[in-house]
Design goal:
Elements (H helix, E strand, L loop, with lengths): L1 H17 L20 E10 L5 H6 L4 E7 L4 E5 L7 E7 L1 E10 L10 E7 L4 E8 L6
Length: 139
């Protein structure tokens, strides 16, 4: 009986060896994922005479706010949100920027001094610039 058992195990082992199963894998290098520059957010806000009420925009006859963002070499953004928005946000690469804000009349001409502020935008953070146009800065 032992001989039959050894013979059966030998046949099974030999069969497995002859028809053996093999698995091979070839490592695949993942395609490099394109990565852009590190980004952050710059939010620029404004008030008129200390107020962020739509009534202040009407009182000073301000329709829009010209918001220019530059990096010292070129203009990155030039937007004109309506006065009543009281803020605008930009997604920007990490770095130093200047924001320039000027209040605009309904006809499109400036009715205030231009206020310039420097700001640093950091990776995955939101930087804030808050500007108040006092009575003396609005014509």
């Amino acid at each position: 009986m032992l001989n039959k058992l050894i013979f059966a195990v030998s046949i099974i082992t030999l069969g497995a060896a002859v028809t053996g199963c093999s698995v091979s894998t070839t490592p695949v290098d993942p395609s490099p994922t394109p990565t852009g520059p590190a980004m952050g957010t710059l939010t620029v806000g404004w008030t008129l005479g200390g107020s962020s009420s739509a009534d202040a925009c009407d009182y000073y006859r301000v329709d829009r706010v010209e918001v220019i963002i530059d990096d010292g070499a070129q203009v990155i953004a030039d937007e004109e949100p309506v006065c009543e928005d009281f803020s605008i946000s930009f997604d920007l690469p990490t770095g130093m920027y200047s924001s320039e804000l000027t209040l605009l009349a309904p006809a499109g001409y400036g009715v205030s001094d231009t206020i310039i502020t420097d700001v640093r935008v950091l990776t995955d953070t939101e930087a804030f610039v808050d500007v108040d146009f006092p009575d003396t800065a609005i014509q």
